Amino acid sequence: MEKILIITGGSKGLGLGLAKEYHKNGYRVISISRSKAKKLYFEEQYQCDLSKTETIESVLKEIFSHLDKKNTLQLTLINNAGDLGTVNTTENLTPSDINYTIQVNLTAPLVLSSQFIKLSKDWNCKKQIFNISSGAAVNPYESWVMYCASKAGLDMMTKVVSKEQKEIQYGVSIVSIYPGIVDTNMQEKVRNTPKEQFKAVQRFIDFYKHGDLLSPEQVAKKIYHLDVDGELKNGRILDVRNV
Hints:
By secondary structure, the chain is α/β, with parallel strands linked by helices. The chain is built from seven helices and seven strands. β4 (72-79), α3 (95-119) and β5 form a beta-alpha-beta unit. The chain is globular and about 55 Å long.
């Protein structure tokens, strides 16, 4: 019986860390990302620009056409891919900036989750969706309006879907996870933002200088163990640093 992980953004950063951790523990890992991982830790990779949300449905259908529900013990979707977007105050954002970031951070996870639930509706196995959210969903940062708003939306999506699926036979469990401050390209982008565009930039420079960033591997291991230990219960919104 297979344990299957479908993950977005599995080619780098936290996504690659999660893909490696689950693969190491015997999962069949399927990555959906804009670019393919340079070093293959898993065989199945689908290229998809998640900002073009109209292409997502066909990718999910293609993935599911290669899965066997009778031979599946566990099926997990991790909505990991995300984008900080342009770091600037609201009046300095263009319509295309806004559209792109909201599409990647909120619309794509919604479409993916919708299709995942639909395509696995009659699968009698453990089914889960993990949304990689952020403390920015509840803590407003100036110049991060798109990121904060989209992550808040992702958390609300988690709450709604958890209620919808709670009483359904073969329902899907869904959680939102705050991974903490992870040493990824996004953090590098934050540190390199001019102070006039992002007032809190020094705080993030200090996180880096003081060694406060967690590695993708550390966070992936924590999430995996929370999963295995049954901590990721339907409807939970949790910060990995507090559990």
